[in-house]
Specification:
Layout: H1 2-13, H2 16-85, H3 91-101, E1 114-120, E2 124-136, H4 138-150, E3 154-163, E4 169-180, H5 181-184
Antiparallel strand pairs: 1-2, 2-4, 3-4
Amino acid sequence: MIIFESLKDSLATIQKTDFYKYIAIIGGSILVLLCVIFYYYHITTSDLLKKINSINAKRKDTQLVLKRLKKVEQQSQEVNELLEKEPNFKIKNFFDTAIQQHKLENKLKIAAADISSEIIHKKYTERKLTAQFKQISTQELCEFLQTIEQKARIYTKELIITKTKGASLDVMLTIATLTPQRESKDKTR
């Protein structure tokens, strides 16, 4: 109570113009304080919104990576199942059988196709077979490629077609298959 009475006495002795000055100063101080608080609030919230947007972008990127990882794991599992179905598969034997089936022995430029190996991700060995055909027709090539495509274990790595005189084609074909890394060291091509 003493504080209120001393404040009342102080206000009674102040002149009206001084009273308005003090009120204006107090009001201005409160207004400046509110502006500072609003500015700080605005800066803080905008900074937090930027961080939230950055985190959301990273979250979306992470989800994409996880989806890709799941797809790669699924494909790896499918490849492993395919490899387990035919553990003794030889690409050269399949190629020779397909050549004989389509009667393309005389179209091969080289009697023996070139076979090479490359290790992929320390898990698989990719066996590539490269063959050159001379004077092959489009129909013969399409039928041969269809036979290769029907074998799930083999895929076409590279196909270079050069048109020669007439309706004949010169073709350089590279097909490949995968073998498990642990088995590829022990087995021959």
